[in-house]
Amino acid sequence: MRGQDPAGLRVTAMRTLFALGLAGWLALIFGIASAQQADPVRIVPRLTGTAPPMASEHIPPLGRPIVDDVRRMRNYPEQPPVIPHSIDGYQLTLNANRCMDCHRREFTEGSGAPMISVTHFQDRDGQVLSDVTPRRYFCTACHVQQTDVAPLVPNTFQDAHDVGRKP
Ligand code: HEC
Ligand code: HEC
Questions:
Q1: How would CATH label the architecture of 62-150?
Q2: Closest to 138 (Cα-Cα) out of 84, 77, 110, 97
């Protein structure tokens, strides 16, 4: 058998080593290329402006949140709705979730708050739980307050209703 022949074995070993070396070089080259592409400063405009990272700059006050209790239209069906009420001082920690004091299914009748939707009960495997799933526990990772300020960056968003073929 060829596998037992020492010369054949040596050739196979050398080929394997060569392939490994080539893979290493390719990984290095592509690694450098993608690291350059993913440079966050180039993709996202810096919110800090041109200030050097370690300087202590004057920070403008936060925008005034809109707290009129009017539920805002969503710009597309999957948008996490913006929060139309104040969330000042609401604790959202490992042990306390103030949001769920009103938005949990069991409390909605008393609070008048809309229940978290069914997607908030599904874990990452699609299993439906009886309470909010861990991946939806930190509400403010997705839901933000609507703030009364001009957009930070230009925006050319078009409603899905206004694009595409008209009937
Ligand atoms: C005291 C009760 C209460 C608490 C606490 C509360 N909410 Fe609400 N939430 C409401 C009510 C009531 C509404 C319906 C609109 C209104 O009256 O402001 C609402 C509306 C919302 C909406 C808009 C839903 C839609 O369909 O437009 C979101 C999003 C929301 N809340 C998220 C949160 C988050 C996140 C927290 C925690 C940081 C929170 N809420 C804490 C009572 C509460
Ligand atoms: C991973 C992102 C994410 C997190 C975390 C999250 N939500 Fe949502 N939420 C959404 C999206 C997306 C929608 C709209 C689509 C849907 O209903 O799933 C939504 C919808 C809602 C609605 C409107 C429901 C309706 O039927 O109109 C409420 C209220 C709400 N979320 C409250 C909460 C609260 C309270 C928490 C924290 C316990 C929370 N969400 C955490 C993404 C999130």
A1: Orthogonal Bundle (1.10)
A2: 97
Q: Is 70 left (phi over 0), alpha (psi -120 to 50) or beta?
A: beta
Domain residue limits, the chain = 2-43, 62-150
Ligand nearest the Cα of residue 115 is 2
Instruction: Give yes or no for residue 73 CB within 6 A of ligand 2.
Output: no
Instruction: Name the residue with the closest Cα to ligand 2, atom 34.
Output: 139
- pLDDT tens string 6-59: 555 555 555 755 565 655 565 555 555 454 455 554 555 556 667 777 878 777
- Tally of CB atoms within 10 A around 98: 14
Task: Note whether 132 and 123 are within 8 A (CB).
Answer: no
User: Which ligand has the minimum distance to the alpha carbon of residue 80?
Assistant: 2
